[in-house]
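User: Can you fold this complex?
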Amino acid sequence: MIYKNIQLKKYNTFGLEYTAECMIKIKTEKEATALFNGTVAWKKPLLILGCGSNILFTSDFQGTILYPELKGIKIEEQEPDKGNVIVSAGAGVNWDDFVAWSVNKGFGGLENLSLIPGKVGATPVQNIGAYGVEVKDQIVKVKTISANDGSIRIFNNSECEFGYRNSIFKKREKDKYLVTRVYYRLTVKPSLNLGYESLKEEVSKIGKETLKNVRQGVINIRRSKLPDPEITGNAGSFFKNPVVTSSVAVNLKGGYPDMPVYKDQEGYMKLASGWLIDQCGWKGKRRGDAGIHEKQALVLVNYGKATGKEIYNLSEEIKKSVHEKFGVDLEREVEVVGVI
Ligand SMILES: Cc1cc2nc3c(=O)[nH]c(=O)nc-3n(C[C@H](O)[C@H](O)[C@H](O)COP(=O)(O)OP(=O)(O)OC[C@H]3O[C@@H](n4cnc5c(N)ncnc54)[C@H](O)[C@@H]3O)c2cc1C
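Assistant: Here's the predicted assembly.
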C-alpha cells in the first residue's frame, strides 16, 4: 500500500511530528520484489523503517519510507545432536513478541534481550544487545531483498560483519537491502547468562534461575530504569559507549578513580557514556522540551513538543562538554535522519 504525506509521530519513539512524502507498507516478499525491480514507481531517497526506536528525525522526509510488515514465526530445523533449534521470524514481527514466544517454547538465547523496542528486521542491522548478550551470537542468516534489482540475497552470519551496534546493513550497504526474514539458532537446554550482577539479584528475588525468570528479571529492571516511549518520547541509549585504548583508559582512571571501565578487545577498554555525561552535570537537565532523563543520563527525551533539531542540538552540547572534560568523543547510537 502506498500512502502520501504521512504524519510520522506514531512511527518514531521520540514522537516527533515530521511528515514523510511517501510511505509504502510491504506485507510480502513479492511486493518488495515488485517495488525494487521497477514494476512499481517510487521516489528516492529510500528509508527503511521499523518502529523508529533508534531514529531521530530532524526534518520532514522528502522521499519514500519503506515499512516492512512481513509476519510469521517458524521452527525451521531441529539440531537434536547439538541441542539446538533454528527458528525464523518475519521482519515485521515485534521483537519482544518473538522473544516471549521463544521463552514460552523453552528455547534459550534471546531472554536477556527482552523488552527491547523495535522489530525483528532491525535486529541484525543494529546487532542489538543487552545484559551481556548480542543478537549476533544467535543469528544464523539474514534473508534480504536487494533494493537495486529486487533479487533475493541471503547473508550468513560472517557476511553480516557484525560489530558493536553495527553491521554491514548500517555501513556500506545501508538502505541497499531490505531484511525480510531473520534466522536464529536457539538452545533447547538453555544455559543462562547471569553475568550481570544486577540481573542475577533481580532473578533471585523472583525465584529460581529459569528462562522465564530471567526474562521477567530483565523486564523488571528495564521498566524501573528506562522511560516508556509510550509516555515519554525517547530512543533508549542516545550514545554508544566509547572504546578507547587501554593507555587512555588507565590515564583517565588515574584522574577519576570511580570511572567505570570494561574490558574490550585486546588493547582497548570500553567507557560508560552515561557516567561521563552524568559527571558533566547533565542528568535531569532540560532545554525546553528536550531533556536528559533524570534517572539515566544516556537517554535523551522529548517531554512533549521538542523538535528533532532541539534534541540534536542538545546532543551536540553534551558531546562538547564530555570532550572538554574527558577528551573523549561520544558517537551517537541513534541515527539522525533529515536536515540539520
Ligand atoms: C526505551 C528504549 C530502549 C532501548 N534499549 C535498547 C537496548 O537495550 N539494546 C539495543 O541494542 N537497542 C536498544 N534500543 C534501540 C532500538 O530499540 C533498537 O535499535 C531496535 O533494534 C530498533 O528497531 P526498530 O524496528 O525500531 O528500527 P528503526 O529504529 O526503525 O531502524 C533502525 C535501523 O534499522 C534499519 N532497518 C529497520 N528495519 C529494517 C529492515 N527490515 N531491513 C533493513 N533495514 C532495516 C533502519 O533503516 C535503521 O537504519 C532501545 C530503544 C528504546 C526506545
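The chain is about 25% helix and 30% strand. The CA atoms of residues 42 and 159 lie 29 Å apart.
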